[in-house]
Backbone:
DNA sequence: TAGATTGTTAATCGATTAACAATC
DNA sequence: TAGATTGTTAATCGATTAACAATC
């Protein structure tokens, strides 16, 4: 596999390729072209070819890509050949919802522990996981070789949780709290705050409609 | 307000500015510089100034930005001056979790209806919303002037839900299902599938650690 | 006046797309 | 051989950053 600086945009697309390829495999499709992929994933075929070519020559001219082989390669690139252990802090509604995604994450990742700082939540069962107190985080992270942390606590607690994860040796964090976390350079953080996504959608609403429906939007007194 | 092509990257940052500015306002901070904002939000101050300057001259040289004024302006740009109505389809764990975010969305948006296609869910109470059957979607969307739809159903149902939203006149969709939706050009879709984010994090894991712990990762047979 | 900070231009950097020779 | 499709180069497009005159 070649080594060079890979752009973030490319890395963000790899899981999307992987997801669709897995679907193709289930449907017993053996081969796929960048054309097909582009159509399905709303991407330019040239971009897909270029993305994949960063990591090696995975296709065959005139034929396309072998689905099974490409899946294997992408999992290798993403370091998903061994299942990665994940821990989650914040056993609220969102945390509980995400804890149920193990079946979807399949062989790639597994949420192995759930923590919460607040007594009413501790000891509660979510799926087959018992909510643990924050005091056990460091030990559990080390014992299970947890490498990624998910944060689903309120904004004002998120930085503390991030610190705890970093201290425990977690290498990456997926942050659902609406706040920008400060972490050392060697720790990667992805923001997953859905309210940001939702509010930005408003920009694209059709302005024409604004005052269309009569009486729906009276002047402010 | 100037008119010109605004990049998606800029629009994605506006809600992040808005969020922090709102926090500043609650703390009764009156003025903020691009320097301050950049430090807090991990962005280049020049970028912040440029982002804002696309829409007008909101700051004062030598002083910075008036917090209240900038909030007002950003809400205007994002068309959040009137509360926007949102509907959600999929009353599973994730859907229920998101339905509870109204307090956080404040004056900006409001989830006004929740739908599900499956009888056991229908009639269920989530907060003060009753889960409605899909048959009522179109009418409810029109009655409440719902402009944004949220999809939290399994992947295989997501396209149907998107179609229903589009038919009902929804202008934008936030899609949590792990699938790429096909919609007409005038409808905006943002992907919010967290498994994609999570898997892409794996790429940034520290390779050095891979075979560090002895015996943890035996060779395949 | 001196210091701070904007708005904006120019320079740089990065990502996407088009085009096509190579080849299955 | 003819058609399809990759891998890759070059061209284009878009986003970020540096630098600084204007000015509070």
Residues:
């Amino acid at each position: 596999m070649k080594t060079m600086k890979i752009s973030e945009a490319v890395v963000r697309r790899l899981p999307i390729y992987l997801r669709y390829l897995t679907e193709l495999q289930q449907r017993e499709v053996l081969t796929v072209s960048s054309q097909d992929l582009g159509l399905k994933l709303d991407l330019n075929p040239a971009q897909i070819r270029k993305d994949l070519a960063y990591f090696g020559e995975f296709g065959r001219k005139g034929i396309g890509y072998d689905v099974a082989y490409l899946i294997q390669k992408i999992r290798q690139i993403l370091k998903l050949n061994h299942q990665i252990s994940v821990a989650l802090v914040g056993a609220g509604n969102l945390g509980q919802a995400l804890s149920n995604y193990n079946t979807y994450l399949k062989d790639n990742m597994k949420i192995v522990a759930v923590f919460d700082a607040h007594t009413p939540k501790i000891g509660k069962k979510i799926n087959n996981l018992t909510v643990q107190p924050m005091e056990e985080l460091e030990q559990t992270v080390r014992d299970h070789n947890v490498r990624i942390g998910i944060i689903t606590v309120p904004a004002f607690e998120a930085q503390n949780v991030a610190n705890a994860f970093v201290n425990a040796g977690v290498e990456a964090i997926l942050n659902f709290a609406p706040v920008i976390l400060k972490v050392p350079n060697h720790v990667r953080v992805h923001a997953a705050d859905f309210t940001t996504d939702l509010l930005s959608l408003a920009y694209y609403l059709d302005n024409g409609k604004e005052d269309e429906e009569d009486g729906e939007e009276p002047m402010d007194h």
User: Anything to note?
Assistant: The first helix of chain B runs from residue 8 to 26. Confidence is low (pLDDT under 50) at residues 211-221 of chain B. The beta strands of chain B are 31-32, 59-60, 64-66, 84-89, 109-116, 125-126, 129-133, 146-151, 172-175, 188-191.
